[in-house]
TrEMBL record:
A single GO cellular-component term on record: plasma membrane
Histidine kinase domain residues: 242-455
UniProt keyword list: ATP-binding, Cell inner membrane, Cell membrane, Kinase, Membrane, Nucleotide-binding, Phosphoprotein, Transferase, Transmembrane, Transmembrane helix, Two-component regulatory system
Substrates-to-products reaction catalysed: ATP + protein L-histidine = ADP + protein N-phospho-L-histidine
EC number: 2.7.13.3
PROSITE patterns: HAMP, HIS_KIN
Any one GO molecular-function label of the UniProt entry: ATP binding
Presence of keyword Secreted: no
Residue stretches making up the HAMP domain: 181-234
Name under which the protein is recorded: Sensor protein
Gene3D superfamilies listed in its UniProt record: 1.10.287.130, 6.10.340.10, Histidine kinase-like ATPase, C-terminal domain
Role this protein plays: Member of a two-component regulatory system.
One Pfam family cited in the UniProt record for this chain: HATPase_c
Amino acid sequence: MRRRSTVWRLTALLATISVLVMAVLGIAIDQAVRHNFNALDRAELENKAALISDMVATVAPQQLGERLGEALGHHPDIAFWISDADGSTVFSTAPAALLEYAGQQSPTAQRRQQVWRLPDGNHYRVLYLRQPPTQGAPLRLLLAIDGARHAPFLRGFHQLLAACIVLAAVASSLLGGYVVRRTLRPLQSLADEARQITTEHLDRRLSVAAAPAELDHLAQTLNSMLARLQNDFVRLSEFSADLSHELRTPITNLLTQVHVVLAQPRDNAAYRDALGSCAEEMQRLSRIIADMLYLAQAETVDALPTRERVALGSLVDVLLEFYGLLAEDKQVQLRRDGDAELQGNRLMIHRAVANLLSNAIQHCPPGGVVQVRIGSSDGRCSIEVSNPGPQIAADALPRLFDRFYRADRSRGRGHGEGAGLGLAITRAIAQAHGGQVQVASTAQGTTFSLLLPLA
Ligand SMILES: Nc1ncnc2c1ncn2[C@@H]1O[C@H](COP(=O)(O)OP(=O)(O)O)[C@@H](O)[C@H]1O
Ligand SMILES: [Mg+2]
């Protein structure tokens, strides 16, 4: 089915409404006019009946016919028939068909108007009276107004009405169509503007100022959608650039080493050395890829794979034990405060806390204390991991959780340093639990807080 355009619909609606209004108005005027004509006819019949009664009462019967002829002869609209009691005509202007019909009716004593429908199709408004005798013999009076008397006027009126209806329909279609088209023009220009917005021109926006009030909200909504899309698009482009960069570096290292070793014959020990450092590089590559996969999965889960009761205190203790050697190595102390239990995925929470802890140990100066505080309030629990150390720049804070972001890139990639995916994974895990990660950094140190709902 083809969809009809709004212009077409509104134009048709306007035309229909104006035709209906004109028609109702026309019917009302028609009724009023007919009512008025009936009242006039009724009054006229009464007047003439009174006039005839007067004449019958005052004029001698021999002159009656003549006087009636003088008084009524020039009333072509009304048919008169005045007769004796025995039916012989005194005065008549009535057509034969009417007289024949009157022959079958009996006159009444009261003035009661009737409507007669003759067999030939004509109808008359009629007064048919028995005139009580004042002088001489009683008379019969018949006064009849032809029902078709007003037909020419009504016909003219109906033609005028029809013309007005057609005119109204045409005028309102043209005018309505024009107005609707004009009103919808801003939509067209919004569409034109939207067509200009491509991936190369994602910074363009729809011009809100030009849009009429009703479209203003739509334009603003579309603009904020564009802003979000642009933001995501930029991040996606950066991400693919970062990803290629991260993968290219270890592969370049591998190739270089292999080429150097193959350039000339070497002894077994040299080959073993070369293979060893190749394995290290490949391990790094495989970790990045595994992390990327994990991140992609964690970011797209709608529901956690499994939820179980997780005791945070013992989970953290296991991790502190695991990182004990590394901490000792860096002359860093590890401590835990508090405990809480929540419903969540143990493996994921384990990984999230491990990422925070390994960062804290890595950035903690020798002799410092890495502190893990567990608490719960308002239906959620918090795991805060803090370490002393230099303050992180305020503008870097929101970017820490981006993939591949490392605050101090100039340091290069020392061994043991990650690819910058740890915090991104921690955030994805928090979000999969319906929670979040926050960071606060002062001159005294840095605290990461993992906030998770209890259930
Ligand atoms: N406890 C911390 N103190 C100072 N800086 C930190 C801390 N934790 C993370 N960062 C900064 O955030 C960056 C991103 O961390 P992360 O995503 O774990 O990546 P990676 O550990 O692989 O560098 C780190 O490179 C570091 O600059
Ligand atoms: Mg890390």
